[in-house]
What does this fold into?
Amino acid sequence: MKKAKPERFESHNPAHTILNLTPVASNLLALFMAEGPIHKLISKRHYPGILSEYPEYREQQIIKLLIEIATSYRLTTWQLKGKRKERERKNEVGLLFTGEDDKEYPLNMHEACNKIIHADEIVFETKKIRKAPLRYIREQIQAFGIKQGEEWNVVLWIPEFCEAAINMPLLDDPFEEED
It folds into this structure.
């Protein structure tokens, strides 16, 4: 195999280009925050197309964005060391329940991403408001799965999850002090 000639290739750091989670996390947050205005629009103007298609689109997009954030975040942050790793593990974004007794633990961003990646089921908590034709999705979701024969359940807080994704620590952040 020949050695690549530098003048023919461009080098890119995935942590700074492909793995920028700001647009993805912003899209996820926007889906949750747009609930009220969309319900108001449908209630006032009775758009049957939006009413029939939007709920499924919304749920598919939320799941897609959750998985994209989780995989990108984990691809970058699994390599963190020292103070960066300690700080990253303190990003609390929900709650983890394990076992039959459903013991509750704080859920950090790192573990939340693992749970999203390995979830067997993702559940949206919804609420019905008066005569609104659609159900609102609350700003938290649940995911369920099994690890080593033990069932687990996470409650993920969407605003906190999006904030942690946007503030994802990078491996070579030039503004961060070294460990």
User: Anything to note?
Assistant: The chain has a mean pLDDT of 83. The CA atoms of residues 44 and 123 lie 28 Å apart. The chain is about 45% helix and 20% strand.
